[in-house]
N-acetylglucosamine-6-phosphate deacetylase (Dictyobacter halimunensis), 402 residues
Amino acid sequence: MRFTLQGAHLVDATMDVERGSVVVDGTQIQAVGQDDDAEGQRIDASDSIILPGFIEVHTHGGGGFNLHTTDVEEVRSYRRWIPATGVTSFLVTVVGTPNALPEAQLQTAVAAIEQAHQHSSEPSAEPVGIFLEGPYISVKKRGAHPPIWLRIPDEKETARILELTRGYLRLLTIAPELPGAHDMIRRLVEEGVTVSIGHTDSDYEQAREAIQLGITHATHCFNAMRQLKHRDPGPLAAIVQAEQVQGELIGDGIHVHPAMMDMLVRMLGPRRTVVVTDALAGAGIPDATFEFAGQQARVICGAARLGDGTLTGSVLTMDQALRNMLDMTHVSLSDVSGMLSLNPARSAQVADRKALLKAGYDADLVIYDRSLQLQATICRGQVCYATDAWRQRLSLDTAKEA
């Protein structure tokens, strides 16, 4: 399908143009900024803001669907649902299993990614790889991860994980103070995997040493890591000082106080901050009760908690995260676009084709109105979500919408 979105406010991490057009041809952006006589449908977007689609590198599910699963169709249902929150690409997050590697879940993730490739014409967000959050994490900083899930890094297990994931492993969290962690970091970096420091009780020196081995990402800064103190700076100081490391921030204002959210962005800068939801299956469902890898959780006052009150993943959605970042931190809309799209694209290793309004890039777009309410999500040139008003504007057949 070929169409032109005309006269919109265009914003990405590299530009902020008050009035311009985006020409989409098939799955790619053909031109940006031009408002000529391009062929195909011409759509008035003069009352709208267009940004690159959001990329979720740390989410466990939403809409009632889990990504840590042995059901390929559950992942398929998730990728059909998630565009309603502005997400056009995501990593399939896998966590631990009792006393063993999560082999079945990793195999399911691979199968789900390959299924999406085989059905690329299906309107849905694109799973661009796998994120393994653990099981190589600190028992002291495990968060909602049960001790029975945790493991010690091992050379044979590293090889097994790489074998199971078949080239789709993009991101892995590790606590670098664990025995054998340095060897695992080296091997994963050699294999092209983005390695993240997280769920860690490492001190400043341990974190610096691990970063020198090739770590370039940090899992939910502040959460599940040793605190930042003036005489015991811990891993966060090492993360901030290492310009090659990007740091995640759960943008709900609950996991991290808004003042600290703003402080982290000021320390890392907008070009190194990766906004994530760390969402669970209950995201997008008010007053939900749901499961996180075998544990019952429920939404209480906008937060996801286990039965004992432990704060677990969030129920945040990325469309709300955009508004939160603008409300709670000092950044511009262009900065936020980078934090929700371009920066995560770098960690997911898809920044060469996603996350910018640029000719030749995937036609992954989100359309907001001027009050910053999501109106439509386009994934690789296909409309995957639209409000009633935008469904009419785009001449959509309801039956064709996911």
In short: The mean pLDDT is 94. The CA atoms of residues 51 and 317 lie 16 Å apart. Residues 103-118 form the longest helix (16 residues). The chain has ten helices and 21 strands.
